[in-house]
Write a structure and sequence with these properties.
Elements (H helix, E strand, L loop, with lengths): L5 H13 L4 H11 L5 H16 L12 H9 L2 E2 L2 E2 L6 E4 L5 H18 L21 E2 L2 E3 L5 E3 L6 E6 L2 E5 L5 E5 L9 E6 L3 E6 L5 E4 L3 E6 L7 E12 L8 E5 L2 E5 L3 E6 L5 E8 L2 E5 L2 E5 L3 E6 L4 E6 L2 H4 L6 E8 H12 L2 E5 L6 E7 L4 H9 L4 E6 L2 E6 L1
Parallel strand pairs: 4-11, 9-11, 14-15, 24-27
Antiparallel strand pairs: 1-2, 3-25, 5-6, 5-10, 7-8, 8-9, 10-13, 11-12, 12-14, 13-14, 14-17, 15-16, 16-19, 17-18, 18-21, 19-20, 21-22, 23-25, 26-27
Length: about 400
């Protein structure tokens, strides 16, 4: 690729920053960012945007002296005398407003991930004070058939795995699971369940063409063929849905004592039993979420939050890209409390978390790739200066610094 004209690059970058870029413009920008010839120009532009947006009000600046430079170095995987790569930095925010800085930081970090993905990792794990390292999770799930047979999907060969009535279960070459409906199914509905363990995720295509991506420690129960007036499935944990349109047969997802009703749309549900809130986020189309006589109609960009203790609904505007970052291979933190960060890590890396003394009061904003080893992720978190970690066997010990 020839050297990009500054005017075009500024235009693409500003549109991306303002979230007004079209899909074609985003793709063009990503191609430029991944071109080694553009490295210095992109880095300079990112530095200018980041430094200017985080220095607008020095009196309330959330960064200590020299911290911005350290963050930029971490994003570009540079430390004194030692190049590094494989992740992005995270900034720590202690009890002060971060909103005015978040857009610049998240943009920088997200672009940094594209920029870093082609670089070779050179990481000294001894700096993270670990006795061992833990690999990230991956495609791993168990399919339980109606007769109780359990199929370990990560070990199963590609091709047809089972036949139930007129439906066949096929593992595709890309690792996904697909249900093929080969005719009408007689009799009572037959249900299967797909479950992911801690450290697992899996993609499923239901008989109607709906695709479901299950996050770690989640499960979905569904019929091998949809019959009647409604397509019903039930969920625990977290999943992203792209529902096949069928106006004559609405799609219902049940979780806890709630239900989401859609005709054809894209949405994400987070309903872990060990978390105090259930979240339903709409990306495309419309959904109605209900609990008893209560119901909420969502439009794209909205998230319905249900607090299990108070049993109250609230609807907020959210950045949907943050919500589905897990599906796209990222941990995305948006002023996220340390305890919630550690909960995400514990699920993905299948580890226990232990706090050495009082829990540090820290929040994090930024993005980190989920395909990093655990040592890389905790080193990035440690770069905030407020916390230290030790990996001991299958346990992360959190130390207040």
């Amino acid at each position: 690729m020839s050297q990009m004209k500054p005017e075009r690059l500024n235009y693409l970058f500003q549109n991306y920053f303002d979230k007004t870029a079209t899909e074609k413009e985003r793709d063009e920008l990503m191609q430029i960012i991944n071109d080694p010839l553009q490295e210095e120009v992109i880095k300079s532009l990112m530095e200018d945007v980041f430094m200017s947006n985080t220095s607008a009000n020095t009196e309330n600046d959330v960064f200590a002296q020299g911290q911005k430079e350290k963050m930029l170095d971490a994003v570009f995987a540079v430390q004194p005398g030692k190049p590094e790569s494989g992740g992005a930095t995270v900034k720590s925010i202690a009890r002060i407003s971060w909103v005015k800085y978040a857009a610049a930081a998240i943009l920088l970090l997200t672009v940094g991930l594209y920029f870093l993905k082609s670089k070779q990792t050179n990481f000294d794990t001894s700096q993270a004070k670990i006795s061992n390292d833990i690999k990230p999770g991956g495609n791993n799930a168990v399919l339980t058939l109606s007769n109780g047979t359990r199929i370990m999907l990560n070990d199963a060969k590609n091709g047809k795995l089972a036949v139930q009535g007129s439906a066949s279960v096929v593992k595709l070459a890309n690792g996904e699971l697909k249900y093929n409906q080969n005719g009408a199914t007689e009799g009572a509905p037959v249900y299967n369940t797909m479950s992911t363990p801690r450290g697992g995720q899996y993609k499923l295509q239901l008989p109607d063409g709906t695709t479901v991506m299950l996050n770690s420690e989640s499960s979905i129960t569904f019929p091998i063929a949809f019959k009647g007036k409604v397509r019903n499935v039930s969920l625990t944990g977290e999943a992203y849905f792209e529902v096949a349109k069928n106006k004559k047969m609405p799609f219902h997802v049940s979780f806890g004592d709630q239900q989401v009703e859609v005709l054809g749309t894209h949405f994400n549900i987070s309903a872990y039993k060990d978390q105090p809130v259930y979240k339903t986020t709409l990306l495309e189309g419309s959904v109605r979420i209900s609990r008893g006589k209560e119901n909420q109609l969502l439009v794209p960009g909205q998230q319905a939050i249900y607090k299990t203790d108070s049993q109250v609904f609230a609807v907020n505007e959210v950045d949907v890209e943050d919500v589905i970052a897990w599906k796209n291979g990222l941990f995305q933190f948006d002023n996220t409390e340390l305890e919630q960060v550690m909960l995400q890590l514990s699920r993905w890396y299948n580890v226990e978390v232990e706090y050495d003394g009082p829990k540090p009061v820290l929040n994090f904003t930024g993005a980190v790739k989920r395909d990093n080893n655990l040592s890389r992720v905790i080193k990035i978190l440690e770069s905030t200066g407020g916390v230290k970690f030790t990996i001991d066997g299958n346990k992360i010990i959190v130390h207040k610094k």
